[in-house]
From TrEMBL:
Compartments where found: Cell membrane; Membrane
A single Gene Ontology CC term: late endosome membrane
Span of domain Lysosome-associated membrane glycoprotein 2-like transmembrane: 202-233
Membrane-topology annotation of the record: Single-pass type I membrane protein
Protein name: CBN-LMP-1 protein
Entry coiled-coil feature ranges: none
Protein's UniProt keywords contain NADP: no
Transmembrane segments: 201-223
Leader sequence segment: 1-17
The encoding gene: Cbn-lmp-1
Phylogenetic lineage: Eukaryota, Metazoa, Ecdysozoa, Nematoda, Chromadorea
Family: Belongs to the LAMP family.
GO biological process: establishment of protein localization to organelle
Keywords of the record: Glycoprotein, Membrane, Signal, Transmembrane, Transmembrane helix
UniProt source species: Caenorhabditis brenneri
Length: 236
């Protein structure tokens, strides 16, 4: 029994652990990008007239860098570059994978993911490799306003060809000036559309169930009272 309890809490510890990334401004020492989350890559390869699908997770981070003062097409951007080993990689296929995230800013948004690429390599689990780029038609809401951060149970980044990057338990901020490399304790978060919609549905469902319960109790009370009156008349 005791062993089972230890196993359960060990599982919770592993499940709650997320990857932590940040980029600091070399001039100020302040963090401009902070990202917490677990990465899952849902990859689709079209090879030899067939479609092959694989799901891979980030296993071991090798190198993290970025730029707080980048410029692309005359627009200010901030970048986060992650080199990592995927799940299932062995010495047989030693090349690392690379993920590049580009954040932009506008008058309406403090930050938003505006571009991303994923360079994969062959592994024991994935016999193909390639470069995956952002699908401009894919919906994405990784954005926040003012000094807020972004929060989502699963943030999806669409890739051309039907592949996706899932960032689970995502907490993200960019174009920030954080004194440290972690989110401040008083950080305000903007919840993603899917989670916000779910949070609205739950109280509605709970309220409807409570209302139905009240109606059932009221009807039961009225029926019981009517029966009691009939029994009283019969005894007389």
């Amino acid at each position: 029994m005791l062993k089972s309890i230890f196993t359960f809490f060990a599982f919770l510890a592993v499940a709650s652990a997320v990857e932590h990334f940040y980029v600091q401004n070399n001039s100020t020492g302040l963090a401009c990008i902070i990202l917490d989350g677990d990465f899952q890559f849902n990859l689709v390869f079209n090879e030899a007239n067939s479609t092959q699908k694989y799901t891979v997770t980030l296993n071991n981070t090798l190198e993290v860098d970025g730029d707080c003062n980048g410029v692309i097409n005359n627009q200010s951007v901030q970048t986060l570059n992650i080199k990592f080993r995927p799940e299932g990689q062995s010495a047989r296929y030693p090349k690392e994978w690379e993920l590049n995230l580009v954040f932009g800013s506008s008058s309406n948004e403090a930050f938003k993911i505006v571009d991303y690429t994923l360079q994969t390599q062959r592994t024991d689990l994935v016999p193909f490799f390639g470069k995956f780029v952002r699908d401009e038609k894919a919906a994405g809401d990784v954005t926040a306003t003012e000094t807020n951060a972004y929060k989502c149970s699963t943030a999806k980044l669409g890739l051309v060809g039907g592949s996706t990057i899932d960032i689970k338990s995502a907490n993200i901020i960019a174009f920030a000036q954080v004194n440290g490399t972690t989110f401040p304790t008083n950080q305000v978060y903007e919840v993603c559309y899917l989670d916000a919609r779910t949070s609205d549905v739950v109280p509605i469902v709970v309220g409807a169930c409570l209302a139905a319960l009240v109606i059932v109790v009221l009807v039961g009370y009225l029926i019981g009272r009517a029966r009691a009156k009939r029994q009283g008349y019969a005894s007389v």
